[in-house]
Write a structure and sequence with these properties.
globular, 8-stranded mixed beta sheet, 16 helices, Nucleotidyltransferase, domain 5, 409 residues, alpha/beta
């Protein structure tokens, strides 16, 4: 089956056409046929890129006014006689959509029906910056591809079975009952993929392992996975909670918010922008939210960049310790996403002096390694793995399985 995966952001459309089936998935032989990115939709500086493995990328600088134009361009590139990979859109069996928030309604991926769509729209209040664009991507693509299944794959679904002790905030309980204020967690598709793949690489049953997965990029989250179930995760009611990130502050004293509003006369929107867009690595370093730039400056002696990297790494170390305690042990630690794969500084700092937990890094491997592979020593009780994430592949697999289940029902 050829599955089209769509990931719609506020001004971007990422797409990938993946060939998969139960047999291909079982043997890990799913194949990416083509992928692309449309950026700055609606702006005069729009950029579009289409890539087929083994060929030079095709770039188009023309303005893309809206999602209709973005989806139309994506589909036209896929079936273009000279540059495409399919002869006709009818070769596409289903479309998988990344949807950030499924609230308490959706615990697994599901085919989008009118009833499901209404429930997704009810979650907009929980993810006002993300779900509206995910919904728009579905509605536009449904017009272009009306006769095939469209499946929603939720970032929150993997964390939906956390115990109450992990997801209930110590606020008045009625706020949970009436307003659904609780920990939801995000990056679930990534955490699910790297934990399952990590267990496979380790050669041990997923259902027997205690795993911590660290998804580290501009957005960061870390998850405790006990025998296949996410039991706690660092992002919470929103993606702002938890680790220090590129521009997000992560965990802070909540009284800082009211202090800023009362004493510096910042309104709620300005404080929200400060915590989400001006904090984290950018706010501390004063230079950039890109870890590559900050690490380069650190190596040249820039003290605030050094501090930014240290704080970013220290928060990871604290969560590793906390989640090891929560699970009563640890078998596998996985680093993934852009920083997790590429920053030996961050991995080294996060795992330093952790031998008491059974974590011993091979410094030579860590300094040179970009993954996939192990960076722990042979005698380390905890295996430490660097592993690229493949969220689009997981969305394609879920979409395929939902489609087949419906067809066989």
């Amino acid at each position: 089956m050829k599955i089209l995966v769509l990931n719609c952001g506020s001004s971007t459309l990422k797409f990938e056409l993946i060939e998969t089936s139960p047999e291909l998935m079982k043997n890990d032989q799913d194949k990416s046929l083509a992928r692309g990115l449309v950026e700055r939709i609606g702006e005069n500086t729009s950029q579009s890129v289409f890539k087929v493995e083994g060929r030079e990328p095709i770039k188009r600088p023309e303005r893309v006014p809206d999602y209709d134009a973005a989806v139309n361009w994506s589909l036209s590139m896929l079936k273009d006689p000279e540059t495409g990979v399919i002869k006709d859109l009818h070769e596409i069996s289903a479309v998988g959509h990344r949807v950030v928030h499924g609230g308490e309604t959706f615990h697994e991926s599901t085919i989008i029906t009118p009833q499901v769509l209404e429930k997704i729209k009810e979650c907009v209040q929980l993810a006002p910056l993300h779900n509206p664009h995910n919904i728009e991507g579905y509605e536009v693509s449904k017009r272009f591809l009306p006769d095939i299944p469209h499946v929603a794959v939720f970032d929150t679904a993997f964390h939906a079975r956390m115990p109450q002790v992990a997801y209930i905030y110590p606020l008045p309980y009625e706020l949970y009952l009436k307003k659904s204020i609780r920990r939801y967690g995000f990056h679930g598709t990534s955490h699910r993929y790297v934990s399952q793949k990590g267990a496979e690489i380790l050669g041990r049953p997923y259902s027997e392992l205690k795993i911590i997965t660290a998804h580290l990029g501009n957005g960061c989250s870390i998850t405790a996975i006990d025998r296949g179930t996410s039991i706690d995760t660092s992002m919470g009611f929103t993606p702002l909670e938890g680790l220090t990130m590129g521009t997000r502050c992560g965990d802070i004293d909540p009284a800082i918010v009211t202090y800023l509003m009362l004493n510096i006369h910042q309104d709620a929107e300005k404080v929200n922008q400060l915590m989400n867009k001006k904090s984290g690595v950018l706010g501390i370093s004063g230079l950039s939210n890109d870890m590559r730039d900050v690490e380069e400056a650190m190596e040249k002696g820039h003290e605030m960049s050094k501090l930014a990297v240290e704080i970013y790494s220290y928060r990871i170390k604290k969560y590793i310790g906390a989640y090891t305690a929560a699970m009563g042990g640890l078998d596998l630690l996985v680093f993934t996403a852009g920083v997790g794969q590429n920053s030996w500084h961050v991995r080294g700092m996060a795992c330093s002096n952790m031998e008491f937990l059974g974590i011993k890094l091979d410094e030579a491997k860590n300094d040179l390694f970009r993954g996939p592979g192990f960076i722990s020593t042979p005698d380390s009780k905890v295996a430490v793995l660097v592993l690229p994430t493949q969220e689009e592949l997981m969305i394609a697999r879920d979409t395929m399985e939902c489609t087949l289940q419906t067809a066989n029902a």
